[in-house]
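Quick check before the chapter quiz. The format below is the same one you will see on the exam, so make sure you can read both the input and the output lines.
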Amino acid sequence: MRRRLFFQVYLTFLAIIVLFGVLTALAWWFIPDEHRAGDFTRGMGSYLQETLPPAGAPRHQMDAHLARLARHFDVDLTLFAADGSVLGSAGSGTGEERRRHRHAIMLPDGRTMEVDWSRNGVSGAGFIVVPGLLALAAAIGAWPLSRRLAGRLERLKSRVEALGSGDLQARVKVEGRDEIAALATSFNRAAGRIENLVEAQRNTLAAASHELRSPLARIAMATGLLADYADQDLVARIERDIAELDQLIDEILLGSRLEIDEGPARVDEIDLGALAAEEAARFEVAFTGGTAVIEVEKHLVRHLVRNLLGNARRHAAGSPVSVDVSADGPWVRLRVADRGPGVSESMRESIFEPFRSFAADGKGAGLGLYLVRRIARRYGGDAVCLERPDGGALFEVSLPARGEEQGP
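Here is the expected output.
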């Protein structure tokens, strides 16, 4: 599972605040205030010497006085002479199970008062409860900030994905004046430029196709008028060239549309077996297979089948060509095979790139195979060139069967 940015930011805030609280508690617990302790010791020493009976007073008098002090301050007191002997003591003696603190106070006359008490600060379970309460407060306080920050980034991410999927009008609402707002502004600017460039490309291709077809039509008309006077072989070659140029224009426009429009606008439920049989009869090649229902754009899949058959007839002239359609679980397989020169293993992937030449006679593959793969992947399938036993080429197209989940 991906770690969402929101939780990363939120937990970072939380960890910093809790760590600060724990370190503060530890510092308060372990680090003494030496300056304040020294002042306290000197002041208390003078006070105790003035308050306590003199060093030679009887033990019961000293104990009684120490008992009053011990009750008043809730501590245990022990008074030592300069030679270390005990002059008196008092206190409850309770709290042994708790962490105790002992502090010695020097009196100006050489005696020492030892003060023993139980600290009532954070201890034991307190080190769990206090950081826990601090973490809860930090969690409540950090939530809105983390949610707002991560939410803006998530909205930006969704718009980026929308642009990548073909929504050229995707824009992000600019919120605030920080770095994320600057990123959103840059994204909107870039998206606008992309939309303008794509629109310009569409217009250019449309205009170019029109401008190219006009002279091609005039050349075709002139060729027809010259048919009775010029060499018939030359006229036939010119007519074939005109047809190839016209087909190339169609394929360039189709390839451009497929690059821009990633997903199908609508799909038709068709029988690929029946469609392949029609095209096989049109090209006068053998067909085998049965019913295989798929959900695609019919005109594009028909174009795919014609491209494969035309490619086989062009590069394997004179050899038998066969078409087969079969259902293979969630997939429908279309195979077009021939007994021509075949495709070397090193070229079986590159021939699906635009304008790659692979035939022994130097004929180019043009855009035909490139469009075959683009159309197949449009519906979550693929097109590959496989090795065929005993020579020749074998092209296989896989498409999801009806009702199967389609890829992007």
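If your answer matched, good. Residues 94-99, 358-362 have pLDDT under 50 and may be disordered.
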